[in-house]
Amino acid sequence: MAYQLLDGKKISEEILTEIAAEVKIIAAKGGKIPHLAAILVGSDGASITYVNNKVKSCERVGFISTLITYDANITEEQLLAKVIEINNDSSIDGLIVQSPLPKHISESKVVQTILPEKDVDGFHPTNFGRLALGLPTYVSATPNGVMEMLKRYEIPTDGKHCVVIGRSNIVGSPMSILMSRNANPGNATVTLCHSRTKDLKYITLQADIIIIALGKAEFLTADMVKEGAVVIDVGITRMVDGTKKSGYRLLGDVKFDEVAEKCSYITPVPGGVGLTTIASLLSNTLKAAKKEVY
Asked: What does the alpha-carbon distance between residue 8 and residue 127 come to, in Å, rounded to a whole number?
């Protein structure tokens, strides 16, 4: 069947344009310009690219951005001290600490040290708890990006069977909450699958919507998907490829070429959900500056 691509670039552009327009109005009224701080530890290639894109996006919408970089040998105490310093800086609205962090630093401890009202990544237990209770919160960027795609492409979710594959706190778990809550998009019947799920194929073949976030390249194949399903691929894996200028290519969790033929809608990788995550992060930062949540 003919499928429609869910274009992350288009959705991201729409959101960023809306944010930029709102920042112009705030500036014209002499209001607080949103300020996002990012901490980058070490020299992971993908993290550097991602953080640089965040800084560029901030400039584009008129935000102030601060990038703080450290060598990988920084101690946990030093990093936590910096987080506390930013917590106490009223000029900064949002703070993200880019993962992955070096092995000797506890990501959990760092996340829990960030003030919930500055946690624009939506990872703090308080923000996750607010999400679970349906209270105003910062929804983590990737699940929020998926919801924006569903909303802006007007994909019906009401009463649909949504299968989420992967149960991480960053994507799978919040995704299952968002898709089941009484809202639009939402009101789906959700099955959350993971490494211990028995007969996954039996379950995915019943799905109207599949959201997969495993980080296993080309895991979802055509024989696991029913005709007309909506497939949203959150996974991204770098594969070495000597034919590419960058030396690698990006693959999603979905075997795109064969799965697409059965879908009504599908996200590409790259060019899909990944592009909406930065826009969602900036959307949370705008909320933080406007004190919409706390």
From this structure: 25
